[in-house]
Write a structure and sequence with these properties.
This is non-specific serine/threonine protein kinase. By secondary structure, the chain is α/β, with parallel strands linked by helices. It is built from 20 helices and 53 strands. Among the domains are: about 40 residues; about 190 residues, Galactose-binding lectin (Jelly Rolls); about 100 residues, Phosphorylase Kinase, domain 1 (2-Layer Sandwich), CATH 3.30.200; about 250 residues, Orthogonal Bundle (Transferase(Phosphotransferase), domain 1).
Length: about 1050
C-alpha cells in the first residue's frame, strides 16, 4: 500500500544508510522518489487511507451489514469526501464518519465517530464496529435496521450510543454494563424486550437513558440507584411492572423525567421531592392506588409539569403558584376537587394549563378568563358567573362542560346558550379536518376546517362541535388538522378516498359532540387512515399511533392502532358500532391518547389520536316530511309493487333459484354479519370472469382467485362448490365466525356473494401467501425470513389466538392452526385464516366433545384420540407451528431418525440431550439471538405438552414470547404416557396415510398435511401451497 510505504518511511531510510557503494545523492533521490510516489498515490485516489488496514476492512464490513452503498473506498474516509460526509444534510439527517488524526503518532488516524441518521439503512447492526478500537460514538437513528444489539461492542470506549427509531429486537446486552465510558444510551422507538439488565447499574457516569416505546418488562433493577449522574431518564410506552421505585431519590442531578404509560402503578413515591433540579417531569397513566398531590414544592426550576391520569385526589396545592418558571401544566383526568387556589394569580411564563376532567368547583378566577394563555377547564363542577349562563369558550379558555348544571332538556350543555335545535335530526356526517365533500352522489360530509388549538371548543354551523385539549410537546407542530402529503400515498382510488385525504389530530383528547338528535339507536362509523407515516422501508414506516376511543362514555377501542388495523399507512379502515343509544339528544365520541405509541417518528411531537371522518345514521325509520300522498296513489303503488314482486318470484321459482336462495337464507338467518356484500357481476369483473390466469390456488371446496375491484382494492376470492352441503355449512360457519372477528392478526373478510349457485367469500389479498410456502415451499417460492421477522410472525400468531380465545366477544377454538392457515401480508405480518372448522368455546362447557376435524401432525393428542376439544388444542397446534418457524422444516415431512415420526419428536430428543439449538434453521446461519431462539423453542415445547392441563393459555404464551414473563420449565404429567397419548393416534394415522388406506369418512374430517399440500378437506386454505410454479408469480 502506498500509504503503508509512507508510514514506513523511517525503516526505508535506515536500510538505505546500510547500503555500501551508494552515493549520498543516490540516497536522496531514492527518498524523493518514494515520497513523491506516496503523494501521487494519495492525490489521485489510490485505494489506501491513513487508517490502519484493519479499520478500513472494518468499514467495508460495516457498509455491507448496513447496506451503506455511497462510501467510496477509493478516497480517504477521514477526508469527509465522496460519501464519507454530507455537506448539506436534510433536516434531521446526518451522514458523517469522523476521524481523530491528532494521536501522538501523527502518521495515522482512527475512526472515533460514525453518525448515519435518517439514511434509510435496512441492514443489521454491525458486529464489525467492535473492530474500530477508538470508536466513541455510534448514532444510527431513524433508519430501518433490524436484528439485535451486538454484545461485542463492549470492547469499545463508547460515550454515545443512539439507535433511536429502528426495528431492533431482543434485549439490551448485559455486557453493556462494562462500557464505563458511556454517557448517553438512546434506544427509543424500537422493538426491544425483556427486563433491563441489572448490570446497567455499573454505568455510573451515564447521563441520559432514553428507552421509551419498546417492550421492556419487569421492575427497574435496584442497581440503577447507583446512576447518580443521570440528567435525562425516559421510559414511557413500555410494559414495566410494579411501582415507580423510591430509589430515584438518588438521582439528584436529574433534570428530565418522563414516565408515561410505562406499565407502572401508583402512587408516585414521596421521595421524588428530593429531585430539586427537575425542570421537566411527565408522569401519566399510572392508575392504581389513589394518592394526594406529590410533594413538589422544592422544584423551583420546573417548566413542564405533567401529572395526567394518575388517580390524584384532594385539592390543588397552593405552592404551584410559586413555581414562576412553569410553562406547561397538565393535571387533567384526575379526581382533584376544591377551588383553584388564590395563589394562582398569574404565572409569568405560563403557556398551557390543562385541568380538564377533574372535580374542581367554585368560581373560575378572573385572571384565567382574561389571560392570553391556553387554559382548559372543561368537564369540572365550577359554578356560574353573575350572568347565570357560562360561555363555552372565552378567549383561549375552554369552558365546555365546566359548569355543574349539567345538560338542558335538549341534551345540550348550558354554555350553548345561542344554540337552538330548529329541528331534531337523525344523522350527522363530518369530514374531520377537511372541506365539504359529497360521497356516492347523495351523502354530504360537512366541512371541519377550524384551526382548533390547545384548549379549544368549536361549534359548527351544523348540529355538531368538538373540544380539543393538549399541545404537541417537543415540537413546533401547531397543526390540529392535516392534509395528506407525499409522506403517505393513499392506497385508494375511489370516491370515498376524499374522506381520507385529511384528518383532525389531537395531542391528548379530542371529543366530538352531535346535538339535537332524535332519541333512539344509531350506527356510528369512524373512518381512519394513517397519513403521517409511510409504507416505505424506512424509519417513517415504523411509527406507532396508539389511542383509545370512547362512545357515550364507554370504551369501545383500546390501544387502537390505525396502521395495524388497516394493514398499512395510507389505507382506510372503517370501524362500525351499532345500537349506540341516544337518550338526551346528544352523542359524544371521544379520542384519547393514553401515553402509548411512538412520539419521535417521523419527528418528535408526532403522536395522539387521528380521525378522518365520522358517520352517524339512525337505525330507526326517520319521520316523514312533506305532503301526504292520496289514498288512491298509495293503493296504486302498492298494487304495482306486489304484482312486480310476484312476477319476479315466479321467474326465480321456474329457474330453480328460489329454493336454493331460501335454503341459504335459512342457514344465514340469525348471523350478525358485519361485512359487505358483493354482486356476482362485481366479482366477475374483478377476476376477469374467473380467468384461470388469476387462479392462485385450489382449496378443499373450490378454487381461489386474485381480483381487483373497481376502486383498486386487491382481493382474494374463495369459491365454494355449490354441490357440497357440508361446504354450505362451512361457508355459513366461516362467514358467521370471521365477520364477528376483527383483529390485526386475523385475515380480514371484506364480504360475501350469494347469487344463483355461486357462494363466494371476498378476503383481503395477502401478498406473501402462506407461512408454509415461505418456510418450506419450493425454492423459487420460499422467502428469506431473518430471525427478527420469524420472531414477530410467531408473536403475531400468538396475539391472534389470544384474541380468539380470551379477548373477542365470541370465544373461538380454531381447530386447524397450521402453517398453511397463517397468511403473510406484504410486510410479513401474520394473519390467521380459514375458520371453516372453528367452533364456539361456550363458557358453560369445560370442553367440547365433537367429531374430530383438523390436520394430523398439528392436532392435540386428546383431541385426535377422543374428540376432547378445548382452547388448549389450539395451543398445541401453535407449539408445532412455532417449532416449524424456528427450524424452517415441516412437522409432518421432516424425519431425521427412523424412530421419529414428526419434527416434534426430534425436538423432544434434542431437549433431552440439552442440544435444542440444533433445531435452528441452517439458513439463519449465526444471525439470530440464541436466548430468544431457545426461549421460543421452550415455549413451543410447553405448548405441545401431552397433558392439556399443563399447557399454558395463549395470553401466558404471548407474555413469555414478548419477554414480559419468564419461560416456565417443561413439566410432564407422569400419569400420562407420552407414547400412548402424544403419538399413538397420530402414528397410526400416519401409517395409514403411507398405505393410502384412510377411510372415506375420515378424510372428510382429517388431513395429513405434507409440506406443499393444502389443508384438510373440510377447511380449505385461502392460499393453498402448491408445487406448480405458476402460483409463485405476482407475489402469491
Amino acid at each position: 500500500m502506498a500509504m503503508g510505504s509512507c508510514s514506513n518511511f523511517e525503516d526505508t531510510r535506515t536500510k538505505k544508510k546500510k547500503l555500501s557503494g551508494r552515493s549520498s545523492a543516490s540516497v536522496v533521490i531514492s527518498i524523493w522518489v518514494i515520497c513523491l510516489s506516496c503523494f501521487v498515490d494519495f492525490a489521485f485516489g489510490a485505494t489506501t487511507t491513513r487508517l490502519p488496514d484493519d479499520e478500513v476492512e472494518a468499514l467495508h464490513d460495516i457498509a455491507e451489514s448496513l447496506g451503506k452503498k455511497d462510501w467510496n473506498f477509493s478516497v480517504d474516509p477521514c477526508t469527509g469526501e465522496s460519501g464519507w460526509a454530507t455537506a448539506n444534510p436534510e433536516k434531521g439527517a446526518e451522514n458523517a464518519v469522523t476521524c481523530n488524526c491528532s494521536f501522538p503518532n501523527s502518521t495515522v488516524c482512527h475512526v472515533v465517530s460514525i453518525v448515519l441518521k435518517s439514511q434509510s439503512l435496512q441492514g443489521v447492526l454491525p458486529i464489525s464496529l467492535a473492530k474500530l478500537p477508538y470508536l466513541q460514538e455510534i448514532d444510527l437513528s431513524r433508519n430501518y435496521i433490524n436484528g439485535t444489539i451486538p454484545a461485542e461492542w463492549v470492547s469499545l470506549p463508547l460515550v454515545n450510543i443512539s439507535l433511536l427509531g429502528n426495528r431492533l429486537s431482543g434485549r439490551i446486552p448485559k455486557e453493556f454494563g462494562k462500557i464505563t465510558t458511556l454517557r448517553n444510551l438512546t434506544l427509543e422507538a424500537n422493538q426491544l424486550s425483556g427486563p433491563l439488565p441489572p448490570e446497567l447499574g455499573s454505568l455510573v457516569d451515564v447521563e441520559r437513558i432514553l428507552i421509551s416505546s419498546n417492550h421492556f418488562t419487569g421492575p427497574l433493577p435496584e442497581t440503577l440507584a447507583k446512576l447518580t449522574n443521570l440528567r435525562d431518564f425516559r421510559i414511557s410506552d413500555n410494559n414495566f411492572t410494579g411501582k415507580i421505585p423510591s430509589f430515584i431519590k438518588n438521582w439528584t442531578k436529574l433534570e428530565k423525567l418522563i414516565i408515561q404509560a410505562s406499565g407502572f402503578k401508583g402512587p408516585i413515591p414521596s421521595e421524588i421531592s428530593l429531585l430539586v433540579k427537575l425542570s421537566d417531569m411527565r408522569i401519566s397513566d399510572i392508575n392504581g392506588t389513589e394518592m394526594q398531590f406529590p410533594p413538589l414544592s422544592n422544584m423551583t426550576n420546573m417548566k413542564t409539569l405533567i401529572l395526567r391520569s394518575c388517580d390524584i385526589i384532594g385539592p390543588l396545592p397552593d405552592y404551584l403558584g410559586e413555581m414562576t418558571k412553569l410553562k406547561t401544566v397538565d393535571l387533567s383526568f384526575n379526581k382533584m376537587a376544591g377551588e383553584i387556589p388564590s395563589t394562582y394569580t398569574g404565572f409569568p411564563n405560563l403557556n398551557f394549563m390543562y385541568l380538564t376532567g377533574n372535580l374542581l368547583n367554585g368560581s373560575v378566577p378572573d385572571w384565567m378568563l382574561k389571560a392570553g394563555d391556553s387554559i382548559d377547564l372543561s368537564y369540572n363542577n365550577f359554578t356560574l358567573g353573575s350572568s347565570g349562563v357560562p360561555s363555552c369558550q372565552q378567549r383561549h379558555v375552554n369552558l365546555f362542560g365546566s359548569s355543574s348544571l349539567g345538560k338542558n332538556e335538549s341534551g345540550v350543555v348550558p354554555c350553548l346558550k345561542s344554540f337552538t335545535c330548529s329541528q331534531n335530526l337523525w344523522y350527522s356526517h363530518i369530514n374531520c379536518g377537511g372541506r365539504e365533500v359529497t360521497i356516492n352522489g347523495n351523502t354530504t360530509y360537512e366541512d371541519d376546517q377550524d384551526s382548533a388549538g390547545a384548549s379549544n371548543f368549536f361549534q359548527s354551523r351544523y348540529n355538531w362541535g368538538f373540544s380539543s385539549t393538549g399541545n404537541f410537546l417537543d415540537s413546533d407542530n401547531n397543526n390540529y388538522y392535516i392534509a395528506n402529503t407525499n409522506a403517505s400515498k393513499l392506497l385508494m382510488d375511489n370516491e370515498n378516498s376524499q374522506l381520507y385525504t385529511t384528518a383532525r389530530l389531537s395531542p391528548l383528547s379530542l371529543t366530538y359532540y352531535v346535538f339535537c338528535l332524535l332519541d333512539g339507536n344509531y350506527t356510528v362509523k369512524l373512518h381512519f387512515a394513517e397519513i403521517m407515516f409511510t409504507n416505505d422501508q424506512n424509519s417513517s414506516s415504523l411509527g406507532r399511533r396508539i389511542f383509545d376511543v370512547y362512545i357515550q362514555g364507554q370504551l369501545v377501542l383500546k390501544d387502537f392502532n390505525i396502521v395495524d388495523e388497516a394493514g398499512g399507512a395510507g389505507k382506510a379502515v372503517l370501524k362500525n358500532f351499532i345500537s349506540v343509544g341516544v337518550t338526551s339528544g346528544t352523542l359524544e365520541i371521544r379520542f384519547y391518547w393514553a401515553g402509548k405509541g411512538t412520539t419521535v417518528i417521523p419527528s418528535r411531537g408526532t403522536y395522539g389520536p387521528l380521525i378522518s371522518a365520522i358517520t352517524v345514521d339512525s337505525e330507526f325509520t326517520p319521520p316523514s316530511s312533506g305532503k301526504k300522498m292520496s289514498t288512491a296513489a298509495v293503493i296504486g303503488i302498492v298494487a304495482s309493487a306486489v304484482g312486480f314482486i310476484l312476477v319476479v318470484l315466479g321467474i326465480l321459482w321456474w329457474r330453480g333459484c328460489l329454493g336454493h336462495k331460501n335454503s341459504m337464507d335459512q342457514e344465514l338467518r340469525g348471523l350478525d354479519l358485519q361485512t359487505g356484500s358483493f354482486t356476482l357481476r362485481q366479482i366477475k369483473a374483478a377476476t376477469n370472469n374467473f380467468d384461470p390466469a388469476n387462479k392462485i390456488g385450489e382449496g378443499g371446496f373450490g378454487p381461489v382467485y386474485k381480483g381487483v375491484l373497481s376502486d383498486g382494492t386487491v382481493i382474494a376470492v374463495k369459491q365454494l362448490s355449490s354441490k357440497s352441503k357440508q361446504g354450505n355449512r362451512e361457508f355459513v360457519t366461516e362467514i358467521g365466525m370471521i365477520s364477528a372477528l376483527q383483529h390485526p392478526h386475523l385475515v380480514k373478510l371484506y364480504g360475501c356473494c350469494i347469487e344463483g349457485n355461486q357462494l363466494l367469500l371476498v378476503y383481503e389479498y395477502m401478498e406473501n401467501n402462506s407461512l408454509a410456502r415461505a418456510l418450506f415451499g419450493s425454492e423459487d417460492c420460499q422467502l428469506k425470513l431473518d430471525w427478527p421477522t420469524r420472531r414477530q410472525i410467531c408473536i403475531g400468531i400468538a396475539r391472534g389466538l389470544t384474541y380468539l380465545h380470551e379477548e373477542s366477544r365470541l370465544k373461538i377454538v380454531h381447530r386447524d392452526i397450521k402453517a398453511t392457515n397463517v397468511l403473510l401480508d406484504k410486510n410479513l405480518n401474520p394473519k390467521i385464516s380459514d375458520f371453516g372448522l372453528a367452533k364456539l368455546d361456550e363458557e358453560e362447557n369445560t370442553h367440547i366433545s365433537t367429531r374430530i376435524a383438523g390436520t394430523l401432525g398439528y392436532m392435540a393428542p386428546e383431541y385426535a384420540m377422543r374428540g376432547y376439544l378445548t382452547d388448549k388444542a389450539d395451543v398445541y397446534s401453535f407449539g408445532v407451528v412455532a417449532l416449524e418457524i424456528v427450524s424452517g422444516k415441516s412437522n409432518t415431512s421432516f424425519r431425521p431418525k427412523e424412530e421419529c415420526v414428526y419434527l416434534l419428536d426430534w425436538a423432544l430428543v434434542l431437549k433431552e440431550r440439552g442440544n435444542l439449538i440444533e433445531l435452528v434453521d441452517e439458513k439463519l446461519g449465526s444471525e439470530f439471538n440464541k436466548e430468544e431462539v431457545l426461549g421460543m423453542l421452550n415455549v413451543a415445547l410447553l405448548c405441545t405438552n401431552a397433558s392439556p392441563t399443563l399447557r399454558p393459555i395463549m395470553s401466558v404464551v404471548l407474555s413469555m414470547l414478548e419477554g414480559r414473563s419468564a419461560v416456565r420449565e417443561l413439566v410432564s404429567d407422569t400419569s400420562i404416557s407420552g407414547e400412548d397419548m402424544r403419538f399413538k393416534a397420530i402414528r397410526r394415522h400416519f401409517q395409514y396415510g403411507q398405505d393410502q388406506s384412510i377411510s372415506e369418512s375420515l378424510t372428510h374430517s382429517i388431513s395429513i398435511d405434507g409440506p406443499w399440500t393444502g389443508s384438510s378437506t373440510s377447511a380449505p386454505d385461502l392460499y393453498p401451497v402448491n408445487l406448480d410454479s405458476q402460483y409463485c408469480n405476482g407475489g402469491i
